[in-house]
Amino acid sequence: MTESINRKLPTWDEYYKNEKIEKMPWYNENLDLDLEDELNAMHLNNGIFLDLGTGPGTQAMELAKKGFDVIGSDISGTVIERNKIMYENQYHNIKFVVDNILYSDFKENYFDYIFDRGCFHVF
Ligand SMILES: C[S@@+](CC[C@H](N)C(=O)[O-])C[C@H]1O[C@@H](n2cnc3c(N)ncnc32)[C@H](O)[C@@H]1O
Q1: pTM for the full predicted model
Q2: Dihedral pair phi/psi, residue 20, rounded to 5°
Q3: What is the pLDDT of residue 46?
Q4: Which residues are near ligand 1 (CB < 6 Å)?
Protein backbone atom coordinates (compact mmCIF):
# COMPACT_ATOMS: atom_id res chain seq x y z
CA MET A 1 0.00 0.00 0.00
CA THR A 2 2.65 2.54 1.09
CA GLU A 3 4.72 1.55 -1.92
CA SER A 4 1.94 2.41 -4.36
CA ILE A 5 1.20 5.72 -2.60
CA ASN A 6 4.88 6.72 -2.83
CA ARG A 7 5.26 5.57 -6.42
CA LYS A 8 7.08 8.22 -8.43
CA LEU A 9 5.64 8.81 -11.89
CA PRO A 10 8.02 9.73 -14.71
CA THR A 11 7.85 13.28 -16.04
CA TRP A 12 6.39 13.68 -19.53
CA ASP A 13 9.88 14.34 -20.81
CA GLU A 14 11.26 11.16 -19.24
CA TYR A 15 8.33 9.27 -20.68
CA TYR A 16 9.01 10.52 -24.22
CA LYS A 17 12.75 9.80 -23.80
CA ASN A 18 12.25 6.22 -22.69
CA GLU A 19 9.13 4.84 -24.38
CA LYS A 20 8.30 4.17 -27.99
CA ILE A 21 5.91 6.87 -29.18
CA GLU A 22 3.95 4.63 -31.54
CA LYS A 23 3.15 2.30 -28.62
CA MET A 24 1.71 5.05 -26.40
CA PRO A 25 -1.99 4.48 -25.69
CA TRP A 26 -3.11 7.80 -27.16
CA TYR A 27 -1.07 7.48 -30.34
CA ASN A 28 -3.34 7.96 -33.36
CA GLU A 29 -1.84 8.56 -36.76
CA ASN A 30 -5.20 9.71 -38.10
CA LEU A 31 -7.09 12.88 -37.28
CA ASP A 32 -9.39 12.47 -34.27
CA LEU A 33 -12.82 11.57 -35.66
CA ASP A 34 -14.73 14.04 -33.44
CA LEU A 35 -12.51 16.87 -34.66
CA GLU A 36 -12.81 15.74 -38.27
CA ASP A 37 -16.62 15.68 -38.00
CA GLU A 38 -16.68 19.12 -36.42
CA LEU A 39 -14.41 20.64 -39.09
CA ASN A 40 -16.57 19.15 -41.83
CA ALA A 41 -19.82 20.25 -40.20
CA MET A 42 -18.55 23.82 -39.81
CA HIS A 43 -16.80 23.87 -43.24
CA LEU A 44 -13.53 24.95 -41.67
CA ASN A 45 -10.30 24.63 -43.65
CA ASN A 46 -8.14 27.64 -42.79
CA GLY A 47 -7.03 29.74 -39.84
CA ILE A 48 -4.51 29.33 -37.03
CA PHE A 49 -4.78 26.22 -34.86
CA LEU A 50 -3.11 25.45 -31.57
CA ASP A 51 -2.76 21.74 -30.85
CA LEU A 52 -1.92 21.96 -27.16
CA GLY A 53 -0.13 19.04 -25.52
CA THR A 54 0.60 17.85 -29.04
CA GLY A 55 2.75 14.88 -27.96
CA PRO A 56 3.45 12.77 -31.07
CA GLY A 57 2.26 15.67 -33.25
CA THR A 58 0.02 13.53 -35.42
CA GLN A 59 -3.05 15.70 -34.87
CA ALA A 60 -1.08 18.86 -35.66
CA MET A 61 0.24 17.24 -38.83
CA GLU A 62 -3.19 16.19 -40.02
CA LEU A 63 -4.48 19.72 -39.44
CA ALA A 64 -1.55 21.16 -41.42
CA LYS A 65 -2.32 18.75 -44.28
CA LYS A 66 -5.85 20.14 -44.34
CA GLY A 67 -4.46 23.65 -44.85
CA PHE A 68 -4.54 25.19 -41.38
CA ASP A 69 -1.54 27.04 -39.95
CA VAL A 70 -0.66 24.96 -36.93
CA ILE A 71 1.38 25.31 -33.78
CA GLY A 72 1.84 22.13 -31.78
CA SER A 73 2.92 22.84 -28.21
CA ASP A 74 4.03 20.53 -25.46
CA ILE A 75 5.76 20.69 -22.09
CA SER A 76 8.24 18.01 -23.22
CA GLY A 77 11.29 19.38 -25.02
CA THR A 78 12.14 15.85 -26.14
CA VAL A 79 8.94 15.30 -28.08
CA ILE A 80 9.01 18.82 -29.52
CA GLU A 81 12.57 18.33 -30.84
CA ARG A 82 11.51 15.02 -32.38
CA ASN A 83 8.48 16.62 -34.04
CA LYS A 84 10.52 19.52 -35.40
CA ILE A 85 12.91 17.09 -37.08
CA MET A 86 10.16 14.81 -38.37
CA TYR A 87 7.54 17.27 -39.54
CA GLU A 88 8.68 20.89 -39.88
CA ASN A 89 10.59 20.24 -43.10
CA GLN A 90 7.61 18.51 -44.69
CA TYR A 91 5.09 21.33 -44.27
CA HIS A 92 5.69 25.08 -44.25
CA ASN A 93 2.53 25.70 -42.17
CA ILE A 94 3.47 23.78 -39.02
CA LYS A 95 5.68 24.70 -36.05
CA PHE A 96 6.37 22.95 -32.78
CA VAL A 97 7.21 24.83 -29.60
CA VAL A 98 7.79 24.01 -25.96
CA ASP A 99 5.10 25.64 -23.83
CA ASN A 100 3.59 24.84 -20.46
CA ILE A 101 -0.09 25.46 -21.04
CA LEU A 102 -0.64 26.31 -17.36
CA TYR A 103 1.83 29.23 -17.66
CA SER A 104 1.59 29.74 -21.38
CA ASP A 105 3.71 32.25 -23.30
CA PHE A 106 1.22 32.43 -26.18
CA LYS A 107 -0.34 35.81 -26.89
CA GLU A 108 -3.99 36.18 -26.00
CA ASN A 109 -6.39 35.73 -28.92
CA TYR A 110 -3.58 34.66 -31.27
CA PHE A 111 -5.30 31.42 -32.29
CA ASP A 112 -8.53 30.93 -34.20
CA TYR A 113 -8.96 27.40 -32.85
CA ILE A 114 -7.54 25.43 -29.96
CA PHE A 115 -7.58 21.65 -29.89
CA ASP A 116 -6.95 19.57 -26.80
CA ARG A 117 -6.80 15.81 -27.12
CA GLY A 118 -5.79 14.31 -23.81
CA CYS A 119 -3.84 17.15 -22.20
CA PHE A 120 -6.26 18.85 -19.82
CA HIS A 121 -7.75 15.61 -18.59
CA VAL A 122 -4.38 14.68 -17.06
CA PHE A 123 -4.52 17.59 -14.60
C1 LIG B 1 -2.25 11.96 -23.27
S2 LIG B 1 -0.98 12.85 -24.13
C3 LIG B 1 -1.86 13.36 -25.60
C4 LIG B 1 -0.91 13.77 -26.73
C5 LIG B 1 -1.59 14.29 -28.01
N6 LIG B 1 -2.51 15.38 -27.75
C7 LIG B 1 -2.27 13.20 -28.80
O8 LIG B 1 -3.49 13.23 -28.89
O9 LIG B 1 -1.56 12.33 -29.34
C10 LIG B 1 -0.92 14.36 -23.14
C11 LIG B 1 0.15 15.34 -23.61
O12 LIG B 1 0.05 16.54 -22.83
C13 LIG B 1 1.38 17.02 -22.58
N14 LIG B 1 1.33 17.88 -21.38
C15 LIG B 1 1.16 17.50 -20.10
N16 LIG B 1 1.16 18.57 -19.29
C17 LIG B 1 1.34 19.66 -20.08
C18 LIG B 1 1.43 21.06 -19.84
N19 LIG B 1 1.34 21.57 -18.60
N20 LIG B 1 1.60 21.90 -20.89
C21 LIG B 1 1.69 21.40 -22.15
N22 LIG B 1 1.62 20.08 -22.45
C23 LIG B 1 1.46 19.22 -21.42
C24 LIG B 1 2.21 15.75 -22.41
O25 LIG B 1 3.59 15.96 -22.59
C26 LIG B 1 1.59 14.83 -23.46
O27 LIG B 1 2.26 14.94 -24.70
Answers
A1: 0.94
A2: -80, 125
A3: 96
A4: 12, 26, 53-56, 58-59, 74-76, 79, 100-102, 117-119, 122
